[in-house]
Amino acid sequence: MIDIVLGGSSAQVLTIKIGRQLKIPTILPEIKKFPDGEKYIRITEDVNGKTVAIIQSFYHQPDEFLIEYFLIADTLKDLGAKKVIGVIPYFAYARQDERFKPGEAISFKIVTKLIEEVGTDEIYTIDTHLHRVEQLSEIFHIPAHNLTAVPLLAQYVKKNFELNNPVVIGPDEEAEQWAKIAAKELEAEYDILEKERLGPSEVRIKTRELDVTGKDVLIVDDIISTGGTMVEAIKMLKEHGAKSVIAACTHPILVRNALTRIYQAGALAVIGTDTVPSSISFISVAPIIAEALRRG
Ligand code: R5P
Predict the structure, then answer these.
(1) 49 and 71 co-located in one domain
(2) Looking at 195, 215, 235, 238, which residue is catalytic?
């Protein structure tokens, strides 16, 4: 049973929405930056004996939002909070889940360790990039739940676009899990592409025996970052005769001109959720988070 939701500076609107759905008080702490760049946090409300959910998403300035999270969580415990639940809609650093080259930091592991260290008792994330680490429970020692926004993405597409003979595509192997969920919602078939990453913003999508001729395609992925994956996937699907392509993701990070490039590649629409506030965040994850917190 949650008593209070508290919003870090990355997720204040989302926090208000969740608080309203749960009909519980919302706290927006005082957050300032000193002239030298250090963060200042002050929680003036009484949290003694309360169960508090911190909503903080680690997009765009992940390090800054992480530090804020650490300061808030530790302070809540110090002020007597009974339980601190971390709700991290976009969990950054999950893609560095292994030491790919000698000497690399395994960032995913380090970040989860620090989140636990500051007193987090339970954690919720949404469509975290789980690849070599398959379950959050493999990396967290506290109860950890990875929710999904993909049914909401598919329902949005169903409601707002007239799809004719649709097919759902995951742009790489990891995306099969999301393509499967979206395909179920749309009562459509799904398939995945083969992706090879050449650099931070370059990918090569390999051709597969795909029959998308004349079909309306929905591509579903967890993240659109540089847009490289979506651009190459759309180009390939168009070359294979797709009638239209909609690009959907849970986390629209959209660095630099990602959105323009995806439209230039021929996307009919690009949609995402408010785990990362953006111009394409048409879908709110507030109902999924509220429901999960209510269920406990
Ligand atoms: C990685 O495999 C993820 O699932 C996404 O496909 C990736 O993060 C998208 O990045 P970008 O938009 O830079 O291609």
Answers:
(1) yes
(2) 195
pLDDT tens for each residue of 153-188: 999 999 999 998 899 999 998 999 999 999 999 999
- Edge-to-edge strands of the sheet including 167-170? 189-192, 167-170, 216-224, 244-252, 269-273, 281-283
**Nearest atom within ligand 1 for CA of residue 227:** 12
Q: Is the pLDDT of residue 61 over 90?
A: yes
Residue 78 lies in a domain: yes
Same domain, 178 and 226: yes
206 is catalytic: no
Point out the ligand 1 atom lying closest to the alpha carbon of residue 195.
Answer: 2
Give the orientation angle of helix 176-186 with respect to helix 150-160, to 10 degrees: 40
Between CA 47 and CA 65 the distance in angstroms is: 21
Residue minimizing CA distance to atom 3 of ligand 1: 223
CA 293 to centroid of ligand 1, rounded, Å: 28
Residue 92 has pLDDT above 70, yes or no: yes
- Does any domain span residue 279? no
Could you tell me if 165 and 39 lie in one domain? no
Determine if the pTM surpasses 0.90. yes
Do residues 97 and 196 share a domain? Answer: no
Q: Are residues 175 and 291 in the same domain?
A: no
Q: Which two tokens stand for residue 169?
A: 């595509």
C-alpha 286 to ligand 1 mean position (Å): 24
Segments forming the whole domain that contains residue 46: 4-148+284-295
- Tell whether 290 and 253 lie within a shared domain: no
At residue 14, the 3 state secondary structure works out as: helix
